[in-house]
Amino acid sequence: MSDELDLSFLYYFSAASQDLLEVRINGLQEGTSPALVYHWLHHDQETQQLHKLTFQSMGSDHGQDLRVFAEAELRFNASQAQLRWTNSVAEEKQVLDALSVQQIPSVLTARAQNFLRSLRT
Fold first, then answer.
1. Which single residue of 21, 33, 80, 105 has CA 20 to 30 Å from 12?
2. Three-state SS annotation for 9-64
3. Which residues pair with 22 in a beta bridge?
4. CA 64, 67, 68 angle in degrees (round to 5)?
5. pLDDT beyond 80 at 18
6. Cα–Cα distance between 16 and 115 in angstroms, integer?
């Protein structure tokens, strides 16, 4: 039996130095906590490291989707996203392009697969 997770990539945002993905793990037992099903992963392209953002809430504001994490706030529409780290001294917003999930590089999907598998062990 394969230990591959059945993943669906829901959102993909990318910039020169980072990527942000929302990933759903499919096929989990009914009633599984959404925190174990849905994962927002930040990918640092320089270090090639992934880390999971701690989801707090979602909504919309001024025509943009909004996701709030312990570490950051993400506002996005169909073409771009703005990411603001909550621990940043500056109020600088990082702009990422909103891309189709079909454009996620295979190396990044493999990295996400390995990262999420490691969370389950």
1. 33
2. EEEEEECCCEEEEEEEECCCCCCCCHHHHEEEEEEECCCCEEEECCEEEEEEECCE
3. 11, 40
4. 130
5. yes
6. 21
